[in-house]
Structures are given as C-alpha cells and as structure tokens.
C-alpha cells in the first residue's frame, strides 16, 4: 500500500452537485461565471439541493421557508453571553452554536429524507443569524431579529449592522455567497461527508465541516489575507514584504490551490468587486496593495490567487470585522455541505480509507520497570 499524501488526485466519491474540470467550475452544469452574473444565492441553494434551478413558485417557497426559520432559539443567544467573549474566535463560536442548535431541534436524530431536508432549511436559515448575533453580542450590542420581508443577503447584513444595507452592499454580499456556495470535494465538504457516512446526523456533519473550514489552509485563509494586507499597509511595500516571506519559506495566504492549475475562476469576480467597492468606499489602497501582492507573488511562483485572496478586501469594504470573513464563507458553504450531506445519505457507504503503516516492525511487550 502506498499513500497518496493529502489524498491528492484520489477520486473518493461520485457527486452530481458541482464539478471542476479543466479549471472550469460548474454547479450542476451551470458555469460559475453565468451564475455569478445572473443568479441569486437563494436560486443557487435550490439548485444545489434539487439539482435544478427553481421556477418562480419554488423560489418563492424557499425564500419564505428561509425567512421563517432564521430566528435563533433564545437559549443559543443566551449561551453566547457565557462564552469567554474576548478570547473566542467567531468560527469557534459558530462551530459551538451549530452543535448547540442540534440540542433544540426535536428532529435532530430523525433520519428520514423529508426530516433531513427540513433540517437543511433550518440550518441554512440560522447560519447568518448565528454569525450576526454573536458579532453583536461580543460588542455589547443588542441582537437584531431577522425580518421576514428581506432576502437572504439583505437580512444577513441587516442583522449584522442593525441598519438597512444599500443596494450595492446587498449585491456584493449576494455575489460573494454565490461564489462560495460549493466546490466539489474540498476539505470541509469531505469532512461533512465522512461524518454523515457513519449515519451520524446533519448537525454533526455541519459542525465537523465548520471545524475543517476554520483552518488557514482552507477557509481561514481569507482572514489571514486581510491581516497580511494590513501589515503591508501601502502598495509600495508589497513587493518587499512578499519577497521576504518567500525567502523565509513562508506561504502567502490566498494563493495556490490543490485542483486549479491555471487559476481559480472565482477570483476574477472578487477582484472586480474589490476594485469597485474599494473605489466606492474611498479606500482604493486595499485593492492596490492586493494587486501589488499578486504581481510580486506570481513573478516568483506560478500560483494564481484563489477565492480567498480578493474576498478579503471585498468584505473589508463592506465594513465587516476581519475575523468574520471565514464565518461568512461558512454562511455560504453550508448550502454546499448540506447538498453533499443529503446526497451522501441517498447513496451511503461508510468512508474508511487505509493508512500506509510507517511505524516500527513487530516487537514484544516490555514490562514497565524494565523499560
Ligand atoms: C477556499 C480554499 O480553501 S482556497 C485555499 C486557501 N488556502 C490558502 O490560500 C493558503 C495558501 N495556499 C496553500 O497553502 C496551498 O496552495 C494549498 C493548501 C491551498 C494547496 O496545497 P497543496 O496542493 O497541498 O500544495 P502544497 O502546499 O504542497 O504546495 C506545493 C508547492 O507550492 C508552494 N506553495 C503553495 N501555495 C503557496 C503559497 N500560498 N505561498 C507560497 N508557496 C506556496 C509550496 O510551498 C510547495 O512548494 P515546494 O514544492 O517547493 O515545497
Ligand atoms: O476546493 C478546495 O480545495 C478549496 C476551495 O477552493 C473551496 O473549498 O472553495
């Protein structure tokens, strides 16, 4: 047995949800470029869960179901106040809150198809409320209840900021949610599938996936990108910063990808959004620094930016706290996790690969006082 380190190149399942072929990303056959230009996040959720775009009535029904299920159990809101709030990363809070939500869902362990779909709706709907409520509670602000008349992206920004977002902000958030929704068998989605393939429940699968997304080699990279841009400070310092990091054999966050070779097709949309939004906010330096980092990095390594690179300056321009960037990724990606969880249940087999053993050969036990 020879190990494929990091399971590189291993095809571990079949899936009808999304594909990456020749650096082109599609959700159920629709090119990400097409969806980013034309679809709303709610349409994408429906597409990922039903493998078809919704008609008007189906879309309206889903929007209603999401709006009706956004509110959090009071116990979950109260529990935020018991966290060591100044030390807790919002991804840890999100992971804990999703796990806690399962405690208050009477259907948490009910394993039929309809119940699992109902749980998917409830979880998708509550994710933005968790992120927004935690973000407010930790600042000593009152939580803002979701409004049933608002769309998903709009409601999220409204709950986060406590005021109505403008149209440009809503569109930017909606596009960002579309772009992050699903991505074949990425690490967090694989984690979710491994978890539920034991026939564990939906809440366990999503909790496990949040844990995997949190790491800086995966979703956690977007926060690290913003940290880097802030450290660099001005565009003229970008090249020196990048070269020094590379000389020290450090990674530059937001570049490279396990699957894409020529480039991540999502990055160009976020780059454009970053340019536009940083101009609107009067802080073009965040885009300028990002471009200089890209130029300096790609002059040294043939690794283009991934989805996390320009999303950092996009979220910053939306006035979002930097440690909420990865939770926002989760608010979108939970749609993909849930699609994969439902697909896994439909055609389940325990996921259990092998390990190539590299430890010592056979030896005999030695009693403790002879060691
Ligand atoms: C949503 C997402 O998850 S997108 C990815 C987000 N993560 C990041 O942006 C973190 C930075 N990037 C990386 O760490 C990697 O490119 C990954 C984790 C995304 C992909 O990793 P892998 O496919 O395992 O590639 P691996 O890390 O082995 O890199 C291959 C080579 O490229 C180098 N490399 C890859 N990415 C980078 C980077 N961002 N900066 C510097 N060097 C890099 C590695 O050092 C390695 O060099 P070597 O062969 O000389 O040792
Ligand atoms: O697919 C991956 O390995 C990481 C990624 O880009 C994503 O999850 O969006």
Automatic annotation (TrEMBL):
Lineage: Bacteria, Bacillati, Bacillota, Bacilli, Bacillales
Keywords: Acyltransferase, Transferase, Tricarboxylic acid cycle
A single cellular component GO annotation: cytosol
One annotated GO biological process: tricarboxylic acid cycle
Top-level taxon of origin: Bacteria
Catalysed reactions listed for this entry: oxaloacetate + acetyl-CoA + H2O = citrate + CoA + H(+)
Active site: 257, 308
PROSITE patterns: CITRATE_SYNTHASE
InterPro entries: 2-MeCitrate/Citrate_synth_II, Citrate_synth-like_lrg_a-sub, Citrate_synth-like_sm_a-sub, Citrate_synthase, Citrate_synthase_AS, Citrate_synthase_bac-typ, Citrate_synthase_sf
GO MF term (any one): citrate synthase activity
Pathway involvement of the protein, from the record: Carbohydrate metabolism; tricarboxylic acid cycle; isocitrate from oxaloacetate: step 1/2
Name of this protein: Citrate synthase
Signal peptide, first to last residue: none
Family indicated by similarity: Belongs to the citrate synthase family.
Pfam families, A to Z: Citrate_synt
């Amino acid at each position: 047995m020879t190990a494929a380190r990091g399971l590189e190149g291993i095809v571990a399942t079949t899936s009808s949800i999304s594909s990456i072929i020749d650096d082109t990303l599609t959700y159920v056959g629709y090119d990400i470029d097409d969806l980013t230009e034309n679809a709303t996040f709610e349409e994408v959720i429906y597409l990922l869960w039903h493998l078809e775009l919704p008609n008007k009535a189906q879309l309206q029904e889903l929007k209603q179901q999401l709006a009706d299920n956004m509110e959090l159990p009071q116990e979950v809101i109260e529990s935020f106040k018991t966290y060591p709030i100044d030390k807790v990363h919002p991804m840890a809070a999100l992971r804990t809150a999703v796990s806690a939500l399962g405690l208050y869902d009477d259907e948490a362990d009910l394993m039929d198809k309809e119940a699992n779909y109902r749980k998917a709706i409830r979880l998708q709907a509550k994710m933005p409320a968790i992120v927004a409520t935690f973000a407010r509670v930790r600042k000593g602000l009152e939580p803002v209840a979701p409004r049933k008349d608002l769309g998903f992206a709009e409601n999220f920004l409204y709950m986060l900021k406590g005021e109505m977002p403008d149209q440009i902000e809503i569109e930017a958030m909606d596009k960002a949610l579309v772009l992050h929704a699903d991505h074949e068998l990425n690490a967090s989605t694989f984690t979710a599938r491994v978890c539920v393939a034991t026939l564990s429940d939906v809440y366990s699968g999503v909790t496990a996936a949040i844990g995997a997304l949190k790491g800086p080699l995966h979703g956690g990279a977007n926060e690290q990108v913003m940290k880097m841009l802030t450290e660099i400070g001005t565009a003229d310092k970008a090249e020196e910063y990048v070269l020094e990091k590379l000389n020290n054999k450090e990674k530059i966050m937001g570049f490279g990808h396990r699957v894409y070779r020529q480039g991540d097709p999502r990055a160009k949309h976020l780059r454009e959004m970053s340019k536009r939004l940083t101009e609107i906010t009067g802080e073009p330096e965040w885009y300028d620094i990002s471009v200089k980092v890209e130029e300096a990095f790609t002059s040294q390594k043939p690794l283009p930016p991934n989805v996390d690179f320009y999303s950092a300056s996009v979220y910053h321009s939306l006035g979002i706290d930097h440690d909420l960037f990865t939770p926002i990724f989760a608010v979108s990606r939970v749609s993909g996790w849930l699609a994969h969880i439902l697909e896994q249940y439909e055609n389940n087999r325990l996921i259990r690969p092998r390990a190539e053993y590299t430890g010592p050969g056979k030896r005999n036990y030695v009693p403790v006082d002879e060691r």
